[in-house]
Specification:
The protein is of the alpha/beta class. About 30% of the residues lie in helices and about 20% in strands. An 8-stranded mixed β-sheet has the order 1-8-4-5-3-2-7-6. Helix 2 runs parallel beside helix 3, helix 4 runs parallel beside helix 5 and helix 6 runs parallel beside helix 9. The chain is elongated. About 45% of the residues are buried.
Length: about 525
């Protein structure tokens, strides 16, 4: 039914992501200047602020879709003066199993808008959809094509965006803006890749030495910064899952604890790392584990989520094998490098579980190094559908970030010599939108678009992310629809009107000449 409805819907229908089911009428109503909001049932402490936030977005909006309508919505004298919100559950915990479903009605008789949801987080999703129905026309805020009836819920519980803050630093305000845009797209997980080889930009109270591993004192996330961002995300229905990548991608540790790192700053870096600078943790040094215990104790206490990402990608065994101390340890204990990988991962996993967290890990640890993780572990797959299929057959829960579709940094050329990069070409929004989850694979929780920040900072963050991340958001919320371009074009202009510098999809001329600009 939904694809058929899409062929009938006017081009001004720009809800993104597309709801699960919907119907609409032919009448335009006016939204009252003072929308009265009432609540039925329990509500989380953030819900009142969320309503005020959306009232501000709507009242301050001068957005009108640039794509002309091909259908008519008849004007009326009806005025919507009230919004009724009904919540069933008092549960305010946010996690993988949180119910985000909602229903939204805009009726003519009586003239009222209603949002009903099991949880306050479902209300957040309903408020976003409601705000997208509103247009500014001739000095008034109106809702065309009433009555509306929408029943909506996500296909996947994990709909994320990975942001790397190590290679380039992003100010707190830029991350907040990204969280706002995520909420507009109904994305619900910020995978915060906090640290990497280039820098360690976060305060660890029990290990102040790490402050020396940041680019500068101004490029450090304080404990208060992190708490502020986690709360800001929570109020928008977004979980924050931190990643502290070990044992690879850890050259920055050298600036704080040189004794626990090996193969640091090798001139022939390509033999020792995926990119410069080289450097990994020494898994045979007891001090490595002492530091990890302190780090994980502090960070698992700081970050709220049930899951904690321990990295594990692109481990370079040649790096370890180049260390005389590591080779001597292997000989003394009659171990192979593969066994050393498992020993390290088992210890780190145990430290995380000691603090009542579940582990997320990149696919290489399972598929290349044969590490066996606890059954509740989530494995993040990035190297294609075959990885997803193998992980599924092994019984793991999976989050997909296929680099061939959802690595948004690709396509700018190699940042060292200007040659084509390993993951070229550029991932267009069409490419992002064309991704299809494995239909016969069990355990797929959802996915994440990934923004590695070698060539991104706050100056181009928005236009690299949006609206390409929007394309992935709809795939994870509803799945693909036919002819999404005009809706995405409308939505891009809505994002822009809300202060998100989303890049243009086409020349502005195309908005009024769709027949010439659509495939």
């Amino acid at each position: 039914l939904l694809p058929f409805l899409l062929t009938l819907l006017p081009s001004i229908f720009g809800i993104w992501p597309l709801p699960s089911t919907l119907s609409r009428g032919t009448v335009t109503v006016t939204l009252g200047s003072k929308l009265e909001v009432s609540f039925i049932g329990p509500q989380c402490d953030f819900l009142g602020d969320a309503v005020q936030r959306y009232q501000g977005l709507i009242k301050g909006s001068r957005y009108f879709p640039p794509v002309p309508s091909n259908q008519t919505s008849s004007p009326s004298s009806t005025v919507i003066q009230s919004l009724e919100i009904a919540v069933v559950s008092a549960d305010c915990s946010l996690g993988l199993t949180t119910d985000e479903s909602y229903t939204l009605q805009v009726t003519l008789s009586p003239p009222v808008a209603t949002i009903a949801a099991k949880t306050s987080f479902g209300v957040l999703r309903g408020l976003e959809t409601f705000s997208q129905l509103v247009e500014y026309k001739k000095g008034e805020h109106v809702i065309p094509f009433c009555p509306w009836s929408i029943r909506d819920k996500p296909l996947h519980p994990h709909r994320g965006l990975l942001l790397d803050t190590s290679r380039n630093f992003f100010p707190v305000e830029a991350i907040k803006r990204t969280l706002d845009a995520m909420a507009y797209n109904k994305l619900n997980v910020l995978h915060w890749h906090v640290v990497d080889s280039q820098s360690f930009p976060i305060e660890v109270e029990s290990l102040p030495q790490f402050l020396k591993a940041a680019y500068s004192p101004e490029m450090i996330y304080s404990k208060q910064d992190v708490q502020t961002l986690i709360r800001y995300a929570y109020e928008r229905g977004i979980r924050v899952i931190p990643e502290f990548d070990v044992p690879g991608h850890t050259r920055s540790w050298y600036d704080a604890f040189p004794e626990v790192t090996v193969c640091v700053d090798e001139p022939q870096w390509s033999l020792f790392a995926a990119e410069p600078p080289s450097g990994q943790l020494d898994p045979t040094n007891n001090q490595t584990y002492t530091i990890l215990q302190h780090l994980l104790r502090d960070m698992t206490a700081l970050f709220w989520d049930d899951y904690f990402h321990i990295g594990g990608d692109e481990l370079n065994l040649h790096c370890w094998n180049s260390s005389r101390a590591i080779r001597a340890y292997l000989d003394e204990h009659h171990l192979h490098l593969s066994e050393l990988v498992s020993l390290f991962e088992n210890k780190v996993t145990a430290y995380v579980r000691d603090h009542k967290k579940k582990v997320v890990v990149w696919e290489e640890m399972v598929l290349e190094h044969d590490v066996i993780f606890p059954p509740e572990t989530i494995v993040q797959a990035w190297q294609g559908q075959s990885s997803v299929q193998r992980l599924s057959s092994m019984g793991y829960d999976i989050v997909v970030s296929d680099y061939q579709y959802w690595y948004l940094d690709c396509g700018h050329g190699d940042w060292i010599d200007g040659s084509p990069s390993w993951c070229d070409p550029f991932k267009t929004w069409e490419r992002v939108y064309s991704y299809s989850f494995c239909s016969n694979c069990s355990g797929i929780l959802g996915g994440e678009v990934a923004l590695w920040s070698e060539q991104v900072d706050e100056t181009n963050l928005d236009n690299v992310l949006w609206p390409r991340s929007s394309a992935a958001a709809e795939i994870m919320w509803t799945g693909p629809s036919s002819r999404p371009l005009q809706r995405l074009t409308d939505f891009r202009f809505l994002l822009k009107s809300r202060g998100i510098a989303a890049e243009p999809l086409q020349p502005l001329w195309c908005a009024s000449h769709l027949d010439f600009c659509s495939p």
